[in-house]
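Re: Re: token formats

Sure, here are both.
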Amino acid sequence: MDADRDRLRDLSARLLALHRVLVDHERVAYETRHGSVAAGDLFRLLLDDPHFVWLRALSALIARIDEVVDAADPLSEADAEAAFRAVYRLLKGDAAGEFRNKYHDALQRSPDVVMAHAHVSKMFPSRR
């Protein structure tokens, strides 16, 4: 369904914006401890440094969504809903883990992270 594909494209774009804000937030924290980092070095750090490892869960989820959106195969409503559930679990789930802990810390420390989180959250129906 094109509507589901469009919803997933929108979700991916919002997640990418959130990821960008989180990388900026973590870069500042890293540079506070280790000194300035050049843009080319930041990419290497994102891939290899333990400080940034927690962001890989979000990176991988964005990549999976983009893969589904770009696939030639038909996209079912169930596939789209599964992607939304995965995002919801990662960003709002109660499961303990490194991503959850670091993400909640970023939400407490950065208004930009809060705003990007809210932009993603608008994609989900309100729970009452």
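Second one below.
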Amino acid sequence: MSDLLAPLAHLVSRWASLYNDSSLLEGSVAFLHAAGVLLGGGFAIAADRATLRARRAGPDERARQLERLAGVHRPVMTGLAVAV
């Protein structure tokens, strides 16, 4: 194994051992992953739906939807970060 990958392999093997030996850690990681996907995905789907609805509205409503989209970016990215 190359000298660059040895520390990474050591870190991953320690994490795998800890993860496999702790059902609490395993459950917590699974919960955080699912919660992040639901949080980020839920906000993204709701924003997409509102955007599709605004497509048929007038220019004022489309402008308001663009402003709302800017506010959705943070929760979507937070959810994705938690999922990762």
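The chain has a mean pLDDT of 90. Residues 23-54 form the longest helix (32 residues).
- S.
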